[in-house]
TrEMBL record:
Superkingdom of this protein's organism: Bacteria
Domain ABC transporter: 3-231
Name this protein carries in UniProt: ABC transporter ATP-binding protein
Record-linked CDD domains: ABC_drug_resistance_like (cd03264)
Taxonomic classification: Bacteria, Bacillati, Bacillota, Bacilli, Bacillales
Amino acid sequence: MKLVIENVSKKYNDKWAVREFNAEMTDGVYGLLGPNGSGKTTLMRMLASILKPTSGRILLDDQDIRTLDETYRDVLGYLPQEFGLYQNFTAERFLAYFASLKGLDKNIAKEKIAEVLALVNLTEHKRKKTKTFSGGMKRRLGIAQALLNDPKILIVDEPTAGLDPKERIHFRNLISNISRERIVILSTHIVSDIEFIAKDILIMDQGVLKERSDLAGLLSGMKGKVWEASMTETEFASLQGQYKIGNIQRNEDGVKLRLISDEKPHAQAVEVLATLEDVYLYYFGEEAVQNVQA
């Protein structure tokens, strides 16, 4: 199965939310990485066939998804960023409701509900009302509903927003486990969501695809750009505003910095290996990274 995004753009009034976006995807996890407001959600909604592009087209196996219509929706699973739950429904009843919306036969639906509840580790909670669920459990239930029709394309928008570190790890492992033999597109502004599970990472800013590569390729492109340096507070004060600073560690002798620069930024600076967070800082700056870490 091949999904192709071909020169896709979306304009709201006089503002381009997405502009001339091109990508090709086959089985595996694809991480769409960018700060809030970069156009990720608009792109995801077009991929989910909720929004129509202003121009361009999205193809599944060489057929426009608008022409495929219901045939496309039959192979699609979607978990939006804002996912509402019926608070007085149990997990089991909630999934039964969505199974009926997806047109699943009752007997098949019963088996499928049991299967997806087990997959997301919610079987023992199936008769509990969703209003008692933690944030992580709600997101897992959201994934369960998206998987009811055994989709070949799974689109997940900002899945770990508001989750604690333990729930975030659990969710990331779940996404990795279900990515076999399907295309999973995961939109996030949190670097750790995709750092070790994405087949390819697509970096998006202001509606434009800035870079696409696997993790090794992105890190290789940062060679000679990531540095660590120890210095006095006075030297640090003189450097502020000149470079993108990823980390500041104060000690008895002064300040140790991790910073991004195309050239050696300080006499004592030593080049270090890059991380995906360094890549994010390189493209989006300190404010975006602070939002990621918040």
